[in-house]
User: Fold Response regulator transcription factor from Streptomyces thermoviolaceus subsp. thermoviolaceus.
Amino acid sequence: MRIVIAEDDPLLREGLALLLRAEGMEVTATADTPDGVLAAIEEHRPDVAILDVRMPPTHTDEGIRAAVEARRRRPGLPVLVLSAYVEQSFATDLLGDGVDGLGYLLKERVGRVEEFLTALRRVADGGTAIDPEVVAQLLTRTRQDSGLDRLSPRERDVLELMAEGLGNAAIAERLVVTEGAVHKHIRNIFAKLDLAPTDRVDRRVAAVLRYLEEGRRRV
Assistant:
C-alpha cells in the first residue's frame, strides 16, 4: 500500500510514517502544507492519503479543503482525515459527495494501533471509517427532528456501526448477535427512515448521509 501523509506536527508526521513502514506499507511522501500534499498526491499517485484537518496557514479547514480538492483531481482517491476534535461540519463537507473510500477519525485513534490500521485498510479498500464519537454526536443532534427518533436503542447501535463502515458480519460480532438479527435491524432502520429500495441509491449510504447532513445544518 502506497501512502502520502499530510501533517504539520513533525512528531506525529514522522511517528505515523514509522508506524506504517513497520507494518510493511510504503510511505511515498510526507507534507506539512495543503499545497505540498496536493503536489505529492499528483506526483506519487498513492493508494491512500492521510491528512490532518487543521493545517497552515490558518489551521482551520485547510486539510478538509485539500482532501476535497485531491478527490476532485483524482476521483475515488481513498482519503483518511485525522482531527484532534469532533468537528461535524468538517466531516459532512468531506462526505457530502459520497462515502466510498473515506475516513474521518480522531487523532486519539492513532494510539490504538490496531483500530487505526483497520480503519486505514478499510478506507484504502473503498470502505468508510467514521469515528464513533463523531457518529454519536451527530445522532444526538438529529434525533429531535428526524426519523432517527423512531429507532430503538439497538437499531441506533446498528446504525452507528454502519456509519463506521462495518459490514453485517462485523456488526454482529461487535454486538454479539447473529447476522440474521443485524439484517432485521437494518430492514427496520430503512423502514423507519422511509428509505425505499431503489436502483439509484444505496440505502446504507443514504441513511448515513441523511443524519450527517442534518447534523451539519444544526451545528
